[in-house]
């Protein structure tokens, strides 16, 4: 089970009149049988909340200066959203606490030595990459701006 939370925002090219813009957007929520509740904005656009029969919650905000925001929350059962069943995590933290995605697709070798954890992961882009203590940046030569200087490539271990 998972709670999904999506936030979307759009900037329209010109200031908008809520009375003419909102009806076009409402059809999206009506398709999903969501009940609308309009909230007072004192002439500052439109604010509506929508609740669906399936537990979805949406907040639609149309600002007079052209910004449109949609906030959607929905609950999905385990069988609804299937995540790729990958052997290797594709997301790796950098030393400055950002996440980057690599195409690591296979764990070739893993062992804990007396000094560190040793992994060799396969990548379509880099070949086999040596990972020491789960620090991918050392092996690929990544600086703090996540620019690649060189890719560490190693032969297979049998």
UniProtKB/TrEMBL annotation:
InterPro entries: PABS, SAM-dependent_MTases_sf, Spermidine_synt_N, Spermine_synthase_animal, SpmSyn_N. Residues 90-158 form the PABS domain. One of its GO terms (biological process) is spermine biosynthetic process. Keywords: Polyamine biosynthesis, Transferase. Gene3D superfamilies: Siroheme synthase, domain 2. GO terms for molecular function: spermine synthase activity. It holds the Pfam family SpmSyn_N. It comes from the Eukaryota. Belongs to the spermidine/spermine synthase family. This is Spermine synthase. It comes from Liparis tanakae (Tanaka's snailfish). The gene is Sms.
């Amino acid at each position: 089970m998972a709670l999904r939370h999506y936030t979307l925002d759009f900037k329209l090219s010109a200031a908008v009149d809520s009375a003419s813009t909102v009806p076009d957007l409402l059809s999206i929520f009506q398709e999903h049988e969501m009940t609308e509740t309009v909230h007072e904005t004192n002439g500052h656009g439109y604010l509506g909340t929508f609740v669906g029969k399936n537990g979805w919650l949406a907040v639609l905000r149309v600002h007079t200066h052209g910004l449109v925001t949609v906030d959607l929350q929905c609950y999905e059962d385990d069988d609804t959203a299937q995540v790729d069943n990958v052997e290797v995590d594709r997301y790796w933290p950098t030393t400055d606490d950002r996440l980057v995605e690599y195409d690591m697709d296979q764990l070739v070798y893993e062992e804990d030595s007396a000094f560190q954890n040793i992994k060799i992961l396969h990548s379509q882009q880099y070949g086999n990459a040596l990972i020491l203590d789960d620090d991918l940046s050392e092996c690929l030569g990544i600086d703090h701006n996540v620019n690649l200087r060189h890719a560490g490539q190693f032969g297979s271990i049998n």
